[in-house]
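2 proteins. here.
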Amino acid sequence: MMKYVLFDLDGTITDPKTGITKSVQYALKKFGIEVTDLDSLCPFIGPPLYKSFEEFYGFSHEQAMQAVDEYRVYYNDTGIFECTVYEGIPQLLKALHENGIKVMLATSKPEEYAVRLLKHFDIYEYFDVTAGSTMSGSRVEKEDIIEYAMKQAAKLEGIEKFDVSQSYMVGDRKFDYIGASKFEMPCILVGYGYGELEELEACKPYAIKMTVKDLSEFLISKIGRE
């Protein structure tokens, strides 16, 4: 029976394109790199930021961490709210919550930012657990965030161990699948986010849902089923 659903945030619950790409643009400019095509910065949506600065611009680890700090200068007050919630997501979260499903957030975004966003869009009340990365960078890998979320859920329910067989991870990138697979947790990848279909299919996830409507119908159908 489905008991838990873990959601990624960027590209799964929210469309963060404007805020994230503008924040990356701001950070790169501090290093003398001018980027005018914001679409070219979309690959930054999903993975840990420091890794993207290293991979896409050849930054050293020290430079990448400095770039993350610069990114946050813009993102903290402006970029964070330059996003929208995908149509149909609030209704899905509400339906899951009201039917007794434990709704959990597992995002690579710093937890502080994630909570602010959920509250800003009036959907925080639907989440039983919110798990994100730390500002210090001590918890940024998706598998670590998922593990943290599971521990929080177990603590909340007063149980010794989280049952992954009763859960689904929902995300839009291969990183969500890789993190979930570490715990043999079924992963649903969505095609309306920022992962290319080729990337999603290569993961061979439990399911791929191309629209919020398809995702909603799938999850709602699992409520109360053995």
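next one coming up
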Amino acid sequence: MPGKIKPLKRFGQNYLTDKNIINKIVDTFNPSSNERIIEIGPGTGALTRALYDKIGPFTVVEIDTRVIEKLQSELPGLQIINDDFLEIDLKQFLYGTQKNRIIGNIPYNITSSILFKLFMSRSYISDAMIMVQYEVAKRMTAVRGTKDYGILSVLLNYFTATELCFKISPNVFYPKPKVWSAIVNLDFKKDTDNSIEDEDFIKVVKAAFGNRRKTLKNSLSNSIFDTQKIDIKSFPLNRRAEELTFHDFITLTKLLKGNPDG
């Protein structure tokens, strides 16, 4: 057990303990001392120390007050934000035109919430390397027509260039989770369609997958878009969401928001 601090279930804590895996994560992330690095949830600081040894002081966001004093004493100059990552404004960490680089071992129970936070803060992020459940990583990187293809696949394909870097065994954590994990890299430098709002695109994708096995027509009729009318000739509403590319979802968003020509 790392230190004497017990992982808390309510924070979804699983502490990483294997130095080889930690070094592999840092090497893959390849941080530089002149970059704006933010770590989500350092916990007892296993990954934090490896990053600190490589680049010196940087910023961490930690909700668990029990670990802060220890991190402050062991890593001088480390900027510790004692808050919930989901509640902070990433814009405050910008330095000139330099965007933030995000890294973290993400609590499994709030993975989706953190991903949506990153989507909506993408103007302030250059890239993110996060550890998630392997099953979630497969959904994040799934291709059209596969069983794992869904909301996360479409949104990540739209907002980022996503790469599943490598899998991680449960044996390198305390407590040992019941599932494998994976490191996923998200590059936010990808261009999106300026003629639609991010929020609208997300709402359309969620609505389309609301009834996964049904046609788009049925899914949309059971969603916030139930009063919207689309000519079947304008868009193939007899298809299912899992058959669409993110380009199709862009077109669908424009039709539903009354801007078919973009």
